[in-house]
Prior knowledge:
With 247 residues, the protein is of the alpha+beta class. It contains 9 helices and 4 strands, in the order ααβαααββαβααα.
Amino acid sequence: xxxxxxxxxxxxxxxxxxxxxxxxxxxxxxxxxxxxxxxxxxxxxxxxxxxxxxxxxxxxxxxxxxxxxxxxxxxxxxxxxxxxxxxxxxxxxxxxxxxxxxxxxxxxxxxxxxxxxxxxxxxxxxxxxxxxxxxxxxxxxxxxxxxxxxxxxxxxxxxxxxxxxxxxxxxxxxxxxxxxxxxxxxxxxxxxxxxxxxxxxxxxxxxxxxxxxxxxxxxxxxxxxxxxxxxxxxxxxxxxxxxxxxx
Length: 247
């Protein structure tokens, strides 16, 4: 019974603060929408793929050689993002950003147990992202022969700019959904906090909690209009009885 009463009280608190909750949710959604659509700069992504392995004349690879190539993939990933490669990319593309900033734009990943390396670049311009990805692959293909004596780097797929390419971030709908949930949680939490901080006495139950004694009785609230109507009815009734007695 206590659990039912507790849930009912929680529902009444939320109902009383429903305007506050809705206001906070709407404010969070509107702010998220404005920031996502009008303030944050769209970021585009473009990717290229390369295959790295040692060339052999007989075109046959032993299991040991394949495992060695797979273990070297992590080394290749580091080299691709190193100044030895990015400094040349920056120079050939006449990029204004520093090598460190260029490094932050590039993500290098390889599939598990695969010698295929994916080079992804994020930039405010889709054309610039594709150009950086392709140039990074080309420079790595040339320079890795001097760095690690790797003579068989193949570019499997070049980065291209798609028609009406969509940005990878921000994602307005996702941001709005998150803002909706966060706003709802904030509104509910604030409602309970305000109710907890409200020490005013509003009903007989509050009086019992404050004084710690059982309530023996209460004075009913009398509406002024209803009282006047009741008095008029009683007066009319008395007058009717008086007329009947005189007759």
